[in-house]
Specification:
Length: 209
């Protein structure tokens, strides 16, 4: 089995993961970067009509693209079926982990601090962003399936729009989106890599003849 993704397709994923880590761990003086960016985007989003539908709409597009990638793999690229399937399973695992993390951190949403144009889901917690987890998980599945840089770049842009849209709505902090992005990228990638390593080991143990 060849590598999880092509060398060129790997670059956008690594850049996005690195940016997410910086958002989560880098210290900033005074008001944190996450709060400052969230406040700025939330204020801008309150002036945009229909902003509350942006993330959901783009996430649906990503879901359709993911299904299309799965169908393409099963029809045209049998060698990618196994890693793509495990990547898809990894997205489900990442979503479950995201839900558990929300309960563990119990962080109120930013819209409980600042007014927003739409209704604030105050009874639901904020960290991490489930939308970002699903969007970046879809990005990983699409990348594993297609192994094409252009497709990865387009899917990356869609995933970023989902994350930014949630901040424009005022329902997530910047670090919520960053944490969701890391979950969506890391868990499917790790599960796929482990499955691939086990497959290679089992194949190596099969006697010849």
């Amino acid at each position: 089995m060849h590598s999880l993704v092509s060398e060129r397709s790997r670059i956008p994923l690594l850049v996005l993961a690195a940016l997410a880590v910086v958002v989560l761990v880098a210290p900033f003086p005074g008001e944190s970067l996450s709060v400052a960016v969230t406040r700025l985007l939330g204020s801008a989003g309150s002036k945009i009509a229909g902003v509350s539908s942006l993330s959901d709409g783009v996430l649906v597009i990503l879901a359709v693209c993911t299904v299309a990638a799965l169908v393409w793999v099963w029809r045209r690229a049998p060698e990618q079926r196994r890693p793509t399937a495990f990547a898809a399973i990894g997205v489900v695992v990442a979503f479950v982990v995201s839900e558990g993390a929300k309960l563990m951190f119990a962080q109120p949403r930013p819209c409980t601090r600042w007014p927003i144009a739409s209704e604030c889901p105050a009874m639901d917690f904020s960290l991490p962003s489930n939308h970002a987890t699903l969007a970046f998980g879809a990005l990983l599945v699409i990348t594993v399936a297609t192994r094409t840089l252009a497709v990865t770049v387009v899917a990356s842009a869609l995933a970023l729009i989902v994350g930014i849209g949630r901040m424009l709505e005022g329902v997530h902090y910047f670090h919520d989106v960053a944490a969701g992005a890391l979950l969506g990228l890391a868990i499917p990638a790790a599960l796929t890599a482990m499955a691939g390593a086990k497959w290679r080991k089992n194949r190596g143990n099969v006697p010849n003849g």
